[in-house]
Sequence to fold (127 residues):
Amino acid sequence: MKILFIILGIVMGEIALVLFTSFAQEVVFDGISYNTSDNTTLIIGGLLTFAAAILAGVVARIVGRTYTRIIPLVISVIIIIEMTYLITSGITNDPVWFDIIAGGSLILGIWVGYHAKLATFLRPKNN
Fold:
């Protein structure tokens, strides 16, 4: 049963990350790009994206039900794989350093959210 919750925590954490970051970047700002966005959009959009990653970490912890570093670690690896693909395939036209910082902020946000007291407070108690 513990493995099931770990898998659910990973899947739901990743889904939450996609939904929350899409909202922060595409709905609030109609897309964020280093080459086309102004400085205010980059700063506020970056902060909202970081906050979205924190919320996704909270979701992963609540769904995962049990503390394990496996959940945020797997989500972090997924982020690294995705960022590597986007950079190497040329899908993103932003500078590499910008994409690396963006991916790093997602990883940091996942870990912060996963370890937040809010996640511990909201998660269901094990019986």
